[in-house]
Prior knowledge:
By secondary structure, the protein is α+β, with helices and mostly antiparallel strands. The chain is built from five helices and seven strands; from the N terminus they run E-H-H-H-E-E-E-H-E-H-E-E. It has helices at 6-11, 13-25, 38-53, 102-116, 131-138, and strands spanning 2-4, 57-64, 67-76, 85-93, 121-127, 142-152, 158-167. It is globular, with a radius of gyration of 15 Å.
Amino acid sequence: MRRLDAAGVRRYAGGLADLLADTVHGGASVGFLAPLGRAEALAWWEERAADVAAGRLAVWADGDGDRVLGTVGLAFAAKPNSRHRAELVKLMVHPAARGRGLGRALLATAETAAVAAGVFLLHLDTETGSPAEHLYRSAGWTPAGTVPDYAASPEGLLRPTTIYYKRLPATTPTR
Length: 175
């Protein structure tokens, strides 16, 4: 597992873009509609480098060589009254790598890094009924509620979304 700085996001942007496009093609609701072209996915990842450089986003990736098999991010809150929390974003595992514990390892990496950064409350949203819900529930995340018609699936159908949160041990911030 590697934490990517801004240069790393740019270096691995192609592999990250392939992962994003494959994830959307596989039906995962991660904010994009199908079909998602590689150029659009690549541009999206390249734009994230600025957020990483500014400390607003932390990104981890895992893979074999230049092929990215999984990624996860933490979007840090910018408001002074919210610096104790972050949003877990874009947890994606390549379809060929699923079922091997990579999603759980990515999740654990993000949680550990959050604690080290002084973040003790994480939140996320995921499509209700998606396979990701099992991972979050089994990793101790608590559902806060479901919002109907929150986001469109890759096929463009409005779907409910469940909001989850997880309290982590509080520490002194290091970010």
